[in-house]
Amino acid sequence: MFVLVNLKAYPCDPVAVAQAADRVTTEHDVAIAPQTAHIGAVAETGVETWAQHVSPVGHGSHTGSTLAEATADAGAAGTLLNHSEKRLKLADIDASLDAAERTGLSTVVCANNPDQIAAVAALGPDAVAVEPPELIGTGTPVSQADPDIVRDAVAAANEVDPEVDVYCGAGISTGDDVAAAAELGADGVLLASGVAKADDPQAALESLVE
Ligand SMILES: O=C[C@H](O)COP(=O)(O)O
After folding, report:
1. Active site annotation includes 83
2. What general EC class does the enzyme of this chain belong to (predicted)?
3. What tens digit of pLDDT does each residue of 132-169 get?
């Protein structure tokens, strides 16, 4: 399973979380998505580092953008796109995917439900992630609160493009949640508060990947 830990804009120490992830022994692939400004420092720990977003632009007059080229140069291996807290127009998702592909970044496009998963899977990302917004940050895992949304998202993505991996997110914080996601057909999980808001991120990560 791919375990992508999104630090959002939580007031945690991104390097400490990355070092903790580096110390955890697991069969899963763990990656950390810090704030853009912290990508270089997190990547230096050796942990796989992701961006939370890249802009649908290339080099040029785009003040305030998050340039995919700069993100990749800083050490990112991939990027989230269209997170529930950073929604994009369909055309911008497509252009951000082009930017990521151009710069060698792997991609996970988020969506709220199976219909949206089918739509974004058609754009050809490496993976999609289904996240019911109402469960984000609640500590109630999507695999428990709404298992059908995960099953249906897996089926929807497979129908469009079986090469696209499917992750699920919202409320995931324990190894049981990761195992439940795998049983529902997910190839990975996307989570945040369970680690970023934990008093002891290393213990939280160990519990997650046990
Ligand atoms: O990017 C992560 C997701 O929004 C899930 O957040 P959460 O683990 O705090 O529910």
Report:
1. yes
2. isomerase
3. 999 999 999 999 999 999 999 999 999 999 999 999 99
